[in-house]
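Ticket #4471: complex job returned nothing on first submit. Input attached below:
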Amino acid sequence: MKIAFLGNSGSIQGLEGSNTALAVCEEGSLIVVDASGSPAEALTRSGLDPLDIDLVLLTHAHVDHIYALPSLIHNLYLMGRKRGLDIAANSATLEIARSLVNAFALPLKKGIFPIAFIDLGEGSLDAGPIHVQSFAVNHGIPTNGFTFTCMGRKLTYMADCNASTPIPACSIGSDALVHEACLGFKADHSSPSEAAECASAMKAGKLFLVHLPQDRQQRAKILDEAKAAFPESTIPEIMEQIEI
Ligand SMILES: [Zn+2]
Ligand SMILES: [Zn+2]
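Support reply: We reran it on our side without changes. The output follows.
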């Protein structure tokens, strides 16, 4: 199983990349998690074909995680996609996703592929060989993280969340954890040391820090703080495939 970070920034885009969004893939399966930045371009830069997307997962309906959904669908339409596209999220997020897609009347485009909105809640589904388990996290609005399992490897994305979020049972022993980290107290977010503590509690193999500020010095400080509590912490490069 591989992961590509399509962006690793927090709410503000900048030279260090766009908002946090991921691609999770394995032969026969491509999952995009959240829709921000320029998804089709970021996938192509990552060596992935946007037309291969099997599933779009949305963590929550904050603008930095969902705004590019209509553009992604429009791109796929113009690129000639024919097979259906599944979009899965919790019900509150799905409602916003549906209204964004409808705002541009995308389902009325002549010959557009079928779009299925799947209310995933805290359930699970399979996208080819990748099994996805959804779980709720604490972030002020309904938000879900995901554990991906494929051929004995496990990857967890905690999404935007604060440290009161319980460690989901499905995530224990993840080979890699993707977790947000921000500086300064924010009620609905986690600090670098809280992200590191989550990785330790999960018995994760490594920790990828995301949802980061643009400033490089602040990024270095975040990495240092996380490494002090969990040495296998890293800030992932964007738009390259990383083996889990
Ligand atoms: Zn958020
Ligand atoms: Zn966010």
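Residues 2-243 form a domain with the Metallo-beta-lactamase; Chain A fold (CATH 3.60.15.10). Closing as resolved unless it happens again.
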